[in-house]
């Protein structure tokens, strides 16, 4: 062991011990994971709100209707229905609107959501 390694280790441990509590006190880590925590329903709501700024948004967990079916992983959070109204859908056809919803939820669709029913409309449409 080199004579300076002990001093270097002491410095690293001192710096680490000083900064680690400060990071947790500031909520730094929590701010990075806000959209990734909570129920899947809450994550869907947060991501659609951030991406589409909806005037109306309803997210319904329909997983209970599919218990025991293919795609049910036992969490009770795999099947959802969303109804979203936003000015961002004006002039877009149904497929383009659904693509925007799917883009906003892409990570969840690849990891947690098995089925998603989408009703997408612009303000003033029924």
Write the layout of secondary structure elements.
Layout: H1 5-26, H2 28-32, H3 40-52, E1 56-61, E2 79-85, H4 94-104, H5 106-111, E3 115-121
Parallel strand pairs: 2-3
Antiparallel strand pairs: 1-2
Description:
- The protein is 45% helix and 16% strand.
- With 126 residues, it is of the alpha+beta class.
- A three-stranded mixed beta sheet has the order 1-2-3.
- The relative contact order is 0.14.
Helix content: 40-55%
H/I helix tally: 5
Measured between the Cα atoms of the first and last residue, the distance is 75 Å
| Structural class by sheet pairing and helices | alpha+beta
Largest sheet at a glance?
Answer: 3 strands, mixed
* Oligomerization state: single chain
Short characterization:
Helices cover 45% and strands 16% of the residues. With 126 residues, the protein is α+β, with helices and mostly antiparallel strands.
Question: What keywords describe this structure?
Answer:
single chain, 126 residues, alpha+beta, three-stranded mixed sheet, 5 helices, 45% helix, globular
